[in-house]
Amino acid sequence: MSMDLTAGPDLSGLIDATELHRYAEELLVHLVADGTAPKPAPGVTDVPGYWLAPAIDALIQIIDGEDALDALTRAARHDEGKTALFLCLALALAGQGDRVHASWLATAFGDLAADRPVLPGQRAVWVAAARGAYGPAGKIFVLRRLDAVANPHECEPERWLKALLPGEPKVVIPPSLLDFPELAELPALQRPAYAADRLARLRARCTEITSPRKPADPPAHPPTGWRGSGMWPETEPLEVLRSLINPSAHTGPLSSLNDHLLEDLQPNSDPRLAALALHVAAPVIRQAAEELAAATRAMPPAEVTVPIMGHPITLRPDGPDPDSIMEAESRIRARAVPPEPYPTWLPQALIGVAVVLLGLSFALTLWLALLAVLAGGGAGLLLLRRRRREEAEAALVGKQLSELRELADRAVFALHEYARESTRRAEAAERDLAELCRLLRRGPRAA
Hints:
447 residues; 3 strands; transmembrane; transmembrane helix; membrane
């Protein structure tokens, strides 16, 4: 069982350690600034029974290249775990992580378990080792501890993919279906295209994580340290050091091992942490990649039904389904006859009125003949407008029917192109899978 080494110390029975804590805070400032450890004022470290006082003496002696065995023995006698954690993190902060003994790392890291949260001290050593504070040996030590305990299969593969590839598009439209986005949204056609796109971006992300990075400006201290990386402020190791030397300081909330790994795989995380996380999660990522590659090999369906001009049309390799085309044409024709703006019987009624008025004009007055002409003219005008409207509607219907058939034929051609594209897509997915597996086998770069 691993103990939380960052828990506040019990200072009951000790003389006032305020000056020691104040000096320790000042020591951290100097370590961050230039990697030096100023000597404390006389009597500051004279706090009997408290591990921090001899631990600071040991740190100063190690940085100065002196023999620190006596101070180490006294500090370990009071609290071996906190002493080891303090020295591991403080020496990393000073850029002298290469002076950390392997036994100190083992003691500071403690026992890791998949069913328990990662303690702040464990995470701090993990982060420091990933960033190269203890050299290749320290990185390998932490990596082996993570490999021995982590079980990435406890999380759904989808969580790992979303950590690596946040902000994915909801729909991927292949080039062959750019003119028919409705086709691209059909699940049977969308799944292979989406899987291929996702696999390609997964390979690119893994390539980014595992690729060598351009070295930063030469640090002022040995390259195994963190000095000059600009990554120390507000990181877990510095927070843990403050919690070790100051009983009132608190570290952040605890997270599980898989939660830390998922966080480290995010695009905005430290690439060195991402490299370790990728290696630990490699089995489940490889499995997810294989499933994506298999999805790209799905054969296009024998037929699909897609809305064209608002009508469901069934498309097959040999052409649009005649029945669905005929049904769509019938709906277009039925929808194309608008209601008359006046009663349909009105022209006929006006013609009848004109005939009656014309007959009466011979018996009564010729003025009725004029009214008959007006009624007949009105009827003729209404009939002419109806004829022109019917001709315009017929032309529009003909245009829509022609457009419907043309779009259906083009959609069938797009499906043929999609089928040819499927072969190339599956081949590209196989290449992406092979490259991805090669990257995962390489593991994180130790140097």
